[in-house]
């Protein structure tokens, strides 16, 4: 493990640093780090909960999604990357990525109707964060100032070490979070046995769960960072274990590729699995295990010739695997056209091809010493990957618009018929351009296209388009809803909840039976003579209308009853039920 001490003087024998468990002598002990990190992550967990807490199925506001993403990303990046030395660098780096990821989440949440920020652009941004963090840590360790150009000149050993250490430390901290929750549940159940329900009740509150998870994660990161010699040992153990698997994967890939010479690629297309995804996963594992064998450089890599041969074979196998994935993507696109997911898949294939070419180049030129050439190539590829992932996460390219144009061209050319066209994707996956295209198709002279486009525009979620009525326009709720008793008005907010409920969102006819001011029985039917779906819409304690019966409060325990002498009788209880043509459609209430 490299120990860069460019700007530091070795500690004296009687210095407090002499007993440090830190790997780098430039980093003094920081005993308060676990407590500071735990408190910081606990506060971040509470803020995150307050920002994402909302009533389902209501859509979370885009600005709240953005702030939640910014808080989560900035906190995690800061906790993983901060040191007392140049701590303000870590603060600025974390704040910058928090702002970037917040903007990405805000743009993504407003792109489609679902309002979900965690989609492909968000994951692309997270990939950029994961790659950028070890680059920052390395630059912080060795740079004489804050200027970050010429990243490719940083020491590979330090960069590779930071990348693996972050992965190991993050995984270990997440495991600690799980153990913490198990221990808290155990303690809560112990106290519940003696009538103290405080901990048990807190675990049922989401805000406490997020704070506990944050505190556990931050505390674990702080403890492990202060003992990063132990983390380095754990890292080496993980790399050794993975390196043992390298010959296994290398032999399997060699046999697989040789078998394809005889069987051809036809079987891959008809296997029922996503060939491109499978090949890309195999290529990713090949890169991972090859790096586990070659290590950080110098004496870190394995000297075993079988291991090095397996690593060279894995580096060579990436290119044919990526080529097969590219062929699979080409077949799929030719059959079904472009979609945002396939564009992201094509980009992933391009990245795999770049790593495959780098591996082939290194092995062809350096043979057994291929790792000396592969390391700087991988460092440049990592920087390029970070920049590419960030640019793709930003709203610079509209994959929905590209997909919309391609799918419309296929529809107009007759390559796909209206009944086979993916109307749900146009409405819910392709963003504003997809919905604008649907609005234009809804005015088409072709009735089948117009009806399907109108139905897609009127759907509130993609699953509505897969129901028994399929792509049939849904009339406004005012035209489908019958309210009983006649002339009775619905309470404020109830109509919107009924319209969005599973009983009425896609039904041809819907009936609301007002039982009282806080309870409405709702019945829906897709077609005359079809099955009837029924449920209650009730007002909860906070005044919101929700689907289902309101929770009943448990009856208080009676302590003055002696069952041996109590008077026992049978009482006839009258119940009410909603009847449709004499048949009960709801339970008694």
UniProtKB/TrEMBL annotation:
It comes from the Bacteria. Keywords: Membrane, Transmembrane, Transmembrane helix. Residues 1-21 have a biased composition (Low complexity). Residues 1-22 are annotated as: Disordered. Pfam families: DUF4153. The keyword Membrane applies. The keyword Membrane applies. The chain crosses the membrane at residues 32-51, 63-82, 89-108, 120-137, 163-187, 207-225, 237-261, 273-294, 306-331, 343-368, 380-397. InterPro entries: DUF4153. This is DUF4153 domain-containing protein. It comes from Sphingopyxis jiangsuensis.
């Amino acid at each position: 493990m490299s120990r860069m001490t460019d700007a530091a003087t070795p500690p004296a024998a009687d210095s407090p640093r002499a007993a440090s468990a830190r790997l780098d002598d430039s980093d003094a002990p920081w005993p308060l780090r676990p407590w500071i990190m735990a408190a910081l992550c606990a506060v971040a967990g509470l803020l995150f909960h307050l920002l994402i807490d909302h009533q389902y199925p209501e859509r979370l506001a885009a600005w709240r999604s953005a702030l939640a993403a910014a808080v989560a990303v900035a906190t995690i990046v800061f906790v993983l990357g901060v040191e007392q030395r140049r701590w303000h660098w870590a603060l600025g780096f974390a704040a910058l990525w928090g702002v970037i990821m917040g903007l990405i989440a805000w743009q993504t949440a407003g792109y489609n109707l679902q309002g979900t920020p965690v989609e492909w652009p968000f994951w692309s941004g997270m990939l950029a964060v994961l790659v950028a963090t070890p680059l920052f840590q390395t630059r912080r360790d060795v740079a004489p100032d804050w200027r970050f150009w010429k990243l490719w000149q940083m020491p590979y050993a330090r960069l590779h070490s930071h990348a693996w250490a972050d992965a190991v430390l993050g995984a270990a901290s997440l495991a600690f979070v799980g153990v913490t929750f198990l221990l808290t549940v155990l303690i809560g159940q112990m106290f519940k046995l003696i009538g103290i329900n405080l901990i048990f009740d807190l675990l049922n509150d989401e805000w406490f769960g997020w704070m506990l998870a944050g505190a556990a994660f931050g505390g674990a990161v702080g403890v492990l960072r202060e003992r990063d010699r132990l983390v380095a040992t754990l890292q080496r153990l993980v790399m050794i274990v993975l390196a043992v698997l390298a010959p296994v994967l290398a032999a399997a890939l060699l046999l697989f590729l040789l078998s394809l010479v005889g069987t051809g690629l036809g079987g891959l297309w008809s296997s029922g699995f996503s060939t491109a995804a499978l090949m890309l996963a195999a290529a990713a594992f090949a890169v991972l295990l090859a790096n586990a064998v070659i290590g950080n450089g110098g004496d870190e890599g394995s000297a075993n010739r079988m291991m090095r041969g397996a690593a060279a074979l894995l580096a060579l196998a990436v290119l044919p695997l990526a080529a097969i994935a590219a062929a699979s993507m080409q077949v799929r696109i030719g059959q079904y056209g472009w979609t945002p997911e396939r564009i992201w898949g094509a980009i992933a294939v391009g990245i795999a091809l770049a790593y495959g070419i780098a591996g082939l180049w290194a092995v062809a030129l350096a043979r057994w010493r291929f790792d000396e050439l592969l390391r700087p190539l991988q460092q440049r590829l990592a920087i390029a990957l970070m920049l590419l992932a960030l640019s793709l996460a930003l709203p610079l390219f509209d994959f929905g618009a590209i997909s919309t144009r391609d799918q419309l061209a296929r529809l107009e050319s007759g390559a796909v018929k209206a009944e086979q066209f993916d109307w749900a994707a146009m409405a819910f996956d392709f963003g504003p351009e997809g919905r604008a295209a649907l609005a234009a198709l809804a005015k088409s002279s072709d009735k089948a296209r117009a009806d399907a486009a109108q139905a897609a525009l009127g759907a509130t979620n993609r699953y509505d388009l897969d129901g028994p009525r399929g792509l049939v326009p849904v009339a406004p709720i005012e035209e489908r809803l019958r309210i009983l008793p006649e002339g009775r008005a619905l309470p404020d907010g109830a109509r919107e909840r009924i319209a969005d409920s599973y009983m009425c969102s896609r039904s041809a006819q819907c009936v609301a039976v007002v039982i009282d001011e806080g309870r409405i029985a709702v019945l829906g039917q897709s077609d005359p003579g079809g099955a009837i779906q029924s449920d209650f819409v009730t007002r909860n304690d906070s005044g919101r209308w929700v689907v289902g019966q309101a929770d009943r409060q448990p009856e208080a325990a009676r302590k003055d009853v002696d069952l041996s002498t109590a008077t026992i009788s049978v009482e006839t209880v009258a119940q009410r039920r909603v009847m449709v043509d004499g048949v009960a459609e709801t339970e008694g209430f």
